[in-house]
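Duplicate of #3305? Posting structure anyway:
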């Protein structure tokens, strides 16, 4: 009985620490632009990073400039947006942390996005493949998403 109780306590302690352990495993990137460019310079023989490859603006309302990387603006070995497909193009979202550096919080496959004010908060308006809204028609999915801290929170989708 005592061993069983100890095992339960250890399991509870491990579960309590899992969020901390997960956060500790996220890689802190000093400069997302340099990080992403270095990756593609190793992957591609010739590479062109279009003017919209990197955008810097505050995506989570903490007054720190965050980074959004658009893989659709990249041309690798003569192929524009090599990772783009019928679902759209990958966008990498990095949040700057106060301790210094950035954390990649999401990669989303989107057609396009706008960053707009909605009830006093800045939110993403994603245009995505209809399957992301659980639909089978051809009309793009419109998803409204807010970034809180380091989490994407879906407000609505249609």
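Output from current build:
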């Amino acid at each position: 009985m005592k061993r069983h109780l100890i095992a339960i306590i250890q399991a509870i302690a491990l579960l309590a620490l899992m969020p901390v352990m997960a956060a500790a495993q996220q890689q802190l990137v000093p400069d997302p632009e340099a990080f992403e460019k270095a990756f593609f310079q190793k992957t591609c023989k010739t590479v062109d990073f279009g003017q919209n490859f990197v955008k810097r603006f505050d995506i989570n309302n903490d007054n720190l400039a965050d980074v959004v990387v658009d893989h659709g603006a990249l041309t690798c070995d003569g192929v524009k947006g090599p990772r783009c497909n019928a679902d759209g193009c990958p966008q990498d979202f990095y949040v700057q942390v106060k301790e210094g550096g950035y954390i990649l919080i999401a990669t989303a496959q989107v057609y396009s996005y706008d960053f707009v004010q909605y009830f006093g908060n800045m939110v993403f308006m994603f245009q995505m493949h209809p399957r992301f809204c659980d639909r089978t028609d051809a009309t793009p999915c419109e998803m409204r998403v807010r970034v809180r801290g380091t989490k994407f929170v879906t407000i609505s989708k249609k």
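Confirmed duplicate; merging threads. The first strand starts at residue 28 and ends at 29. Helices lie at 2-25, 32-43.
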